[in-house]
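Why does residue order matter? Because the sequence determines the fold. Keep that principle in mind as you read this record.
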Amino acid sequence: MIPPETFRYAATGGFNTMLDIFLYFIFYNFILDKQNVDLGFVVISPYIAAFIFVFPITFSTGFLLAKYVTFIDSPLRGRIQLIRYGISVGGSIVLNYICLKLFVEYLFIWPTVAKMFTTVIVVIYSYLIQRYFTFKTGRLQRSPKTNSLTSHQ
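Structure:
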């Protein structure tokens, strides 16, 4: 049987992931029309610009769902959770950027498909960092008998 927290993470994370991919598709294909974004001092490729534009939306929905639906047993205050969530999302941004660049520019995968592959990698990272750092509902503790690390829920 799957633990309730893991189920809630899969459900809320799945929703937020689908929202992210849907919005990415809309921004890349229709709003940006697959065109570079020229800011005058830098030109951003459309697949990276779509990621940048979608990010604030899914950051907000992701945090709210994690705080109020998934990790409801967190002992941490909301402000601390938000700061830690921002840090964990920073890692997700780096992974997103690296993976999108790799998949699109070096492996020549279509941007929306590349975003899907990237999402799988980021979801695994995100679950682990949110459970053990951001919301601290999963704890690694030393077992007194064996002095080895074990996971406790």
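Confidence is low (pLDDT under 50) at residues 140-144, 148-153.
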